[in-house]
Amino acid sequence: MKEFDTIAAISTAIGEGGISIIRVSGDKALNIVGKIFKGKSQKEFNTIDSFTLRYGYIVDGEDSIIDEVIVSFMKGPKSYTAEDTVEINCHGGIIATNKILELVILAGARIAEPGEFTKRAFLNGRIDLSQAEAVIDIIRAKTELSMKSAILQSGGKISKMVKELRDSLITLIAHIEATVDYPEDDLEEITSIQVSENLKAAVLSINKIIESADEGKILREGISTVIVGKPNVGKSSLLNSLLMENRAIVTDIPGTTRDIIEEYINIGGIPIKIIDTAGIRETEDVVEKIGVQKSMEKIDEADLIILILDSSSQLDDIDREIINHIKGRKYIVLLNKVDLENIIDKNDLDGIESEYIINTSIISGFGVNNLKDAIIKLFFKGEINSNEIIITNVRHKEALILARNNCIQAINALSDTMSIDLASIDIRNAWYNLGEITGDTIQEDIIDKIFSQFCLGK
């Protein structure tokens, strides 16, 4: 019965601001808000037309005015949740907002669970699950490009492609079952060769969608990038240069950076979580030792490693240890301080791809733009096209991979046995796995887990 309750929550950030919005959704929303709203006009509140506003006051009792408000009404199913929805626009601030929410609860609503408004939009059929998940991606977007990708998903781009694939598979299943179950009837039979050709086309379509998944995940979550190197090679200077502010302390004293500094930056629309680490060196300082250990741990966790070397100094054992540690990973090596005498160059870096070795003078800004270009090339082949980036969600990618494997198993079954009825089992599994993306075949506990990640007011 919880799903039929009228729910309420604060839908704006808590704190000082111009306005706050308390959202109420459910079949009793109009009645509940009507109990605490006193309009400036003499009209009864329950006579309000859909998509109109009323000006008045929220009151506690007959005469105790809590706040001056504007109330809007959206009649279901033409609302966010596809239910009757009332939104109370009050003055921003913790006290007034919480007091109005308290009165709404006392009038008969209950506090919404995290993501329950969007969950109701999904359960009521206004959006599918992939569109619902795009809502949280829009909220959490760190760049315009990641937001654009999420908006395409919220508009149903994934849903359309998945629906076309599922329709083609269910049509195939229907043909197979008709051929197997009614061989005596005058129906157009489907051969194993035809089934195999249709499945190969489905695999090609799925592969095309999966190809964008790694790039989509980056747009959604960002690239975890760690800056490493010995003390005083320019790590903190690079962080400050990328942020265009003095975020990290820069001195000539080794060991100045002792803790991990994390910041988000935007490079060509890609969100980058950039991590400045303690300089890696032998030290007897207990605190600095902890910082060095954390630096090595961050190397193992990062998507991208930016190793900075001092081109005016000879390579030593610590430099070589770090170089060996990053081999096999995605990395960019900066030969910094090229404005000074160059003692090392690209030829001295054995086993490091020269394509990702960049000469820099971070203090003057030389080479920093080349670093940004190298990041885009390393992860996006030099060009980002958000219109082609469809899959940004790991759950969607997993479902697509399972569906592709099902189709390949069906093709193999047809190749080995020529039995189309055996192949139909795998085809049905592919259809089922694709349905998990849009929520057509997903289990309830997974739905609950997805919406639990949302904020209360969404």
Compact overview of the structure:
The protein has 458 residues and is an alpha/beta fold.
Distance between the termini: 20 Å
Order of helices and strands: EEHEEEEHEHHHHHHEHEEHEHEEHHHH
Secondary-structure content class: alpha/beta
Tell me the Rg in angstroms. 29 Å
Unreliable sequence segments: 248-258
Major sheet: arrangement of strands: 3-4-5-6-2-1-7
Beta strands, count: 13
**How much strand content do the residues show?**
15-25%
Largest sheet, in brief, is:
7 strands, mixed
Helix content range? 40-55%
- Rounded mean pLDDT score: 82
Report what the structure shows:
The protein has helices spanning 29-36, 94-106, 116-123, 129-140, 144-154, 157-181, 192-211, 213-221, 235-243, 286-301, 317-326, 368-380, 394-417, 420-438, 444-451; strands spanning 7-10, 19-25, 37-39, 52-60, 64-74, 85-91, 110-111, 223-228, 261-267, 270-276, 304-310, 331-336, 357-359. With 458 residues, the protein is of the alpha/beta class. It is 45% helix and 17% strand. Strand 9 and strand 10 (270-276) form a beta hairpin. The chain has a 7-stranded mixed β-sheet with strand order 3-4-5-6-2-1-7.
Features:
single chain; 458 residues; alpha/beta
Question: What order do the helices and strands come in, and which of them pair?
Answer:
Layout: E1 7-10, E2 19-25, H1 29-36, E3 37-39, E4 52-60, E5 64-74, E6 85-91, H2 94-106, E7 110-111, H3 116-123, H4 129-140, H5 144-154, H6 157-181, H7 192-211, H8 213-221, E8 223-228, H9 235-243, E9 261-267, E10 270-276, H10 286-301, E11 304-310, H11 317-326, E12 331-336, E13 357-359, H12 368-380, H13 394-417, H14 420-438, H15 444-451
Parallel strand pairs: 1-7, 8-10, 8-11, 11-12, 12-13
Antiparallel strand pairs: 1-2, 2-6, 3-4, 4-5, 5-6, 9-10
Helix pairs in contact: 4-5, 6-7, 6-14, 7-13, 13-14
